[in-house]
């Protein structure tokens, strides 16, 4: 088989679980802090990197929300998204569904429009310059209350043409999906695609709620679904994609060692698994790094790696015609590499 990392690099792929604020590299944190005259609690890039020793999701989120406070102007959001899209393009990513956290910005007095204008301008430019397709998914911060989420959805409705979906992220434990049942019902009525983080730290019941109360099209992470055989059977039967993020799981101690990562079990149980980076600037790698690290740790074969990349196209929000064209290009690339 061709060298694993080479195969990973050559395969076209979609990235379906990336928080754009989580692509904010430490150097950019400091550059934007200077540009916007913002004081940071760290005195150097190295000190900030040292803060990236997380014991849990909450440890990470505490740093993540401070990091994103340097994003102020439309230009900042544009620079952030364009830098990520260029980096993703270098990893042979051809389609991105990009999460953003508007409440992390509106709570600091930044207008919703500023965020969306900057991000969507970068998406348009990347499409024109690089051919990479990117769309925006607004996430609701689950540690905040329902009223705040409803106001955020109101703001999103004014940008219905530039936001394709609504997701759910932030502190999972104690914030079950059902807390946002009415928000997601309204989002569904407005025509948004729906997603939720579930089963990263939270119990299988949260994955059930994401499916049956919120009605999501994909589950983000979903690791703990494996604790419930009936749930696994349901996810497999309905081909509900899981957007798995190996390096995130390692850095947030969802797994203690990548060799114990459940990805292989997920595949063996017939789950529709995809590989993603989550917050690449914080977790030590972009999407290809995630593929390579988990493939090495679990000794995945070339055909496993190809299947995972193929699955990103099946799980993506595309029209049937777009998916057929993207999959045809994917299979041609596979043939060209000589892998199956
Ligand atoms: O991995 C995550 N989980 C929950 N919320 C998040 N917000 C950014 N990344 C994450
Ligand atoms: Zn995430």
Query: What count of helical segments does DSSP give?
Result: 17
CATH topology: TIM Barrel
Q: How many discrete domains?
A: 1
Bound ligands: hypoxanthine, zinc ion
**Per DSSP, what share of the residues sits in E-state strands of 2 or more residues?**
5-15%
Assembly state (oligomeric): single chain
For the termini, the CA-CA separation is 10 Å
> Can you tell me the CATH class?
Alpha Beta
Helical content class? 40-55%
| Structural shape | globular
Q: Order of SSEs, N→C?
A: HEHHHHEHHEHEHEHEHEHHEHHHH
Low-confidence stretches: none
Site (Important for catalytic activity): 221
Organism: Rhodoplanes azumiensis
Protein name: Adenine deaminase
Active site: 200
Description:
The protein is of the alpha/beta class. It has one domain (4-335): TIM Barrel, CATH 3.20.20.140. It has helices at 4-10, 26-36, 45-50, 57-67, 74-90, 103-106, 112-130, 146-157, 181-189, 204-214, 229-237, 246-251, 263-268, 280-283, 287-298, 302-315, 320-337; strands at residues 13-19, 93-100, 133-141, 165-169, 193-198, 218-221, 241-244, 272-275. It has an 8-stranded parallel sheet. Strand 4 (165-169), helix 9 and strand 5 form a beta-alpha-beta unit. Helix 16 runs antiparallel to helix 17. It is globular, with a radius of gyration of 19 Å. The N and C termini lie close together (10 Å). The structure holds hypoxanthine and zinc ion (ZN).
